[in-house]
Amino acid sequence: MKKLLKDPFLHFILIGVILFALFRLVNQTTETKNTIVINDFDIENIISTWEMQWKRPPTEQEIQNLINVNLKQEIFYQEALKMNLDHNDEIIKRRLSQKMQFLSNDIAAMIKPTDADLEDYIQKNKEKYLTPYSYSLYQIIFSPDKRDNNLKDATDVLNLNKNTSFEEMKSKGDALPFNYHFTNINADELALQFGTQFSEALVNQELNNWVGPIPSGFGYHLVFITQKTKPELPKLEDIRKEITRDYEYDYQKELNESIYQELKKQYDIRIDIKSPDFDPEFVKYLQEKLNN
Amino acid sequence: MKTLKTILLTLLFFSILTNCKKDSENKSETELLTDGVNHEKTSEILYFENKEAFFGETHLHTKYSLDAFIGGNRLNASQALKFAQGEEVLLESTGKTMQLKRPLDFAAVTDHAEYIGEMYSVLSPNSKAYNNEQAKSLREVNGLEEGLKLFVELVVKNNRSSKPQHLEFYEGTMSTMSAWEIMNKQTELNYKPGKFTTLHAFEWSGAPNGGNLHRNIIFRDTIVPDLPVSYIEANRETELWEWLDNISRNGSSVLAIPHNSNASKGMMFDENMPNGDPITKEYAEMRQKYERTIEIMQIKGASEVHPNFWPNDEFANFENAQSLENYSGRSFEEKNFVRYALKKGLQYEDELGINPYKLGFNGGTDNHNGLMSNVEEDNYSSGSHGYVDATAQDRVKNTVDGWAKAYDINPGSLTGVWAPRNTREDIWDGLYNRETFSTSGPRMKVRLFAGYEYKDSYEDYNSFVKDGYAKGVPMGGDLGVDLEKTPKFLVWALKDPMNANLDRIQIIKGWYENGELFEKTYDVAVSDNRLKTDGTITPTDAKVNLTTGEFDNSKGSANFMTTWTDPDFNPNNKSFYYARVLQLPTARWTQWDEIKEGVKYPDNVAKTIQERAWSSPIWYSPK
Fold first, then answer.
1. pTM of the model
2. Fold of the domain spanning A131-229
3. Which Gene3D superfamilies does the record cross-reference, listed alphabetically (chain B) (predicted)?
């Protein structure tokens, strides 16, 4: 039952029933054959279109002319419909199929996702929303600006200072405009400061020990990681806007597809290609593919 | 069940169609958007007491720019802004995917205001003009040749004439408003205070007779007018400023950023106003009020200096887009360049009491393919304009119509803004206060302060910067006058961690003395002990491997931090000082094309370049 309630097609049907009922209520009086009613809405439309183009309201004479033009178009349009002139017109086809799509988009937009829907969506698209790694760490740099062999210096300091205090360790590196101690800095921010090579190298380093040397664009670093937070899924509240946008976009696509598939079931699609240019195997393949 | 479904669907279709005619308008573009825009919580916005450098784009075109659309761009503002945040995008015209190596901190989409209404019609199946022949031909353009024909017909003949007009299928103001609304909504939806800032913006594309006077218009907040202003309504910069004045009275905070003075045919910094009279005090006031920075470099060349007029500047030969002079009747003139304008501004200040060219520096790409700040030399595989330079094979032989050879184009430049937080207000205020710098692509950072009470040297960066603000002014500011004392300058630069080391920092000084304009360049910090006793410098011998593209990082410096005093300081001269930071040589994008794509560029195309950053100037203005 729960699954059925979530079925986009069911939503579609329910909304359809409601709209149908509304439509009957509102339109009881105007549905007579061969009557054309020009109402406030139409005239407003005609006038605003004119104003857009000419940047002034039309005169009475012009209004009359405009109505005439519209009337002519409407009558020809009605008659053309009766004569089926709209059939197999490529432009009309394209336009109408587009309108079908807009319709389903409108319907998708009517259904606002619940928190449960969004939570579910986050779970299904985990990798897209995972936060980056985050660290608390100390770091010192051995810069080539000031040393002949900064790699060797870094290695020596590492080997000789397994148990040196943080206070003392601070002065072993070179003065560059970076923090010695970072608290809860995420890998993206680290990458902006030191480059991606550095931030990526931190993932596999052991905690609570001086490790390195780790290269960056500024030289070799020794790093002491006190805390590492693995990527995690953010709370819905923190990314609600983003999730809602993504969800609605996906839902729209899903509904579009489901309506199409439902409609397609009503049709028997036959491939009737006899041209010798085509391999019969290919025609068979097409036949199978298109009916799935 | 089957038939019931069919009936219901059909009924639904018809009932909605008859009753909700109005409803389906705008859906093609707005479908991705939700109505309620509420930004995520602001509590986590990081605050930097001594400000931080944020990098971003201030000049980019999407499919809402007619010329970009013709060039095959099918990205909208939202997609371009996603790209700026590090996501991968697909370029429909070539089927290639592109991605930045590092996300940006902020960005503005600046579509040409002229034809966004027309583009709305072209892109919205429900618009009246959607099936107009010209609109259709725009949608159906396929490839360079067809595009070029349409481009010349619709853009060149029209927009570069002295009186531009709308295209034949323009539906009126409403369509322009619709387009502007869509653009603003997409800008709004991508704003993540503290993480990624988007700015509402557009480009006014005035180019009377092909002389480039374009300005990007950038807003501080969401108080934007119903409509942007275009070259069609405002024919010259003076009319643009009047419009800006008008919307400012209605609550907007807004900036105009000029670009490509190098291609302005002498008009960007002309001695005369549009009406032919010499520049007046009122003109200078309006200009300084709205034009706070200039885009000193972009894909169509750097506008700082040109070797023809600055033969003694050994670094002037840099991305000058030399073939600009072969198209649209342009020629290089000294007065098209920013350093000239900065000097000339001092003279105006003396004569009129106000400096019309008090310009800080920012950077942009002007990319027409939707790729925000795609500035890295080794990531230029899709070019910058669309069909014309989308592949290496195109770039070897094609000309960006009316502008320059594709190989003279460069990947553009970045804006750096010093701001306490990455929010719209703070980024915009940084631009307004000119606490900005531009880089030719790499994310190097530069700081410059001037004051009278600084120490001769500093132990660490934090006390250096703290003093910088406490006892003086940052880049973009005015050093107060104290005739008894000599000012000191705090100069600092940090390399891009993912690019080459630094070569040196120079200070470029311009001044006005006894009715004449002067300039001088000082090398204030140099790597590898290359400063000789006579004050000259041995050029760097750092090489680039032309078969692998690798640069030599055994040379150069990661960081400079120094206090500098002007040895020629004269307290009575109006002057300006700006810093130029040079990087060690790296491979130019054309070399990367040769390495990766096996193409061959003409011999006169530079194989290596020295990327650089320019700080906004500090002015000193004794009466």
1. 0.79
2. Chitinase A; domain 3 (3.10.50)
3. Metal-dependent hydrolases
